[in-house]
Design brief:
The chain is built from 9 helices and 5 strands, in the order H-H-H-E-E-H-E-E-E-H-H-H-H-H. By secondary structure, it is of the alpha+beta class. It has a 5-stranded antiparallel beta sheet with strand order 2-1-5-4-3, covered by helices on one side. Helix 6 crosses helix 8 and helix 7 packs across helix 9. The termini are far apart.
Length: about 230
Amino acid sequence: MKSLQKKDLFSRKFTDHDREILHSYIAVAEGIGKIFGSCCETTIHSLENPLKSLIYINNSDITGRQIGSPLTDLALELIEKSKHDNEDVIGPYFSKTASGKQLRSVTILIRNENKELIGFVCINLDISVPVNQFMKILLSPENPPADDAVSENYSNTVGDLVRSAFLGVQKKVSLLTGISPIEKSRKTVQKLQDLGIFEIKGAVDIVACELGVSKFTVYNYLREARQN
């Protein structure tokens, strides 16, 4: 532990902005933990107090640490290394916990606006978990999706984005009853307008083609939507 007594580790004075930067990573760490479930531990370390650096952790049973735990020996090496290079993503690398769990890990360096190292995000995946258990964790979310689960389409082009948005809106509008096809087209255009789709160049032409109407009809629907 004598390495922890390096003067420069304790001479740093963190600003409120430094702390804000560190805490802005909590949502990211939490999201990673939710993706991989109980077989993945995600932590955030602050260098403001290296002896009590751990400020966030999920699935802590993997390494048995808790809020207020100190830096690891690897982190100490990375502090020194960060002074000489700009590599901010370390890994993946492998390690073993005291209880014998095999981990595949990545450490991400957090710097402030002055490029000073202020902390780490560490992702530790427990690869000693049997494959069938790992898959069960991935396929059995804690909060099963509802019937109207969120869907996401991954577009390669701007045109794909417009068409994906159109199909998503059209699907919802098609469920409406008691209105004419023309009114459904009007509502589709209105909802796309709410999404900001028509800020994209060429969107009017694509939507007109998908609806089977002229672009002038789409412009008329847009004028009506903007007047309401």
